Amino acid sequence: MTILPLGNVGIGTAFPATKLDIAGDATFLGRQFFGHGIRQILNLFGEGFGIGVQTANLYFRTGAGFAWHIGGVHADGTYDPGGGATLMTLDINRGLDFGSRLGQLLSLWGSSGNRQFGMGIQAETLYFRCGAGAGDGFAWHKGGVHSDGHRDPGGARHSAYDD
Prior knowledge:
With 163 residues, the protein is mostly beta strands. Helices cover 0% and strands 41% of the residues. It contains no helices and 14 strands. The strands form 5 sheets. A 3-stranded mixed β-sheet has the order 1-2-3, with no helix packed on it. A 3-stranded antiparallel β-sheet has the order 4-5-6, with no helix packed on it. It is elongated, with a radius of gyration of 24 Å. The model has no long low-confidence stretch (mean pLDDT 83).
């Protein structure tokens, strides 16, 4: 461990560049606090990749896109799940991509039972699921404002479909 005259502390390094400079892995068993400032708080690979706080937002910064993987191990290739599965990717060129999987890919409300609302792919068909409860149906609105009423268009033009 190195402590420099101006207060920088190094663990595993003789020349700490910041107040705490750790060369190697670190384990934290308690909570970590990053202060109360509005800024990019966690830099993951330089300042171009990180997590921060703006006035009322938590943000994630990336140089290209985001990928959500399940299972696998770290791999350096872009969107490489490292032997796991890619759940989805998001980038400026391709938008939100769920890959080549079948099933309900976007759940809007309800996660089990008959009252599921969402979108998915089944064989070669894009589907919109609107539940199977009393009063469940599709409605298309143009204009207006959101309303929690049963297919209430909020002052907009309206068409509906019930099965």
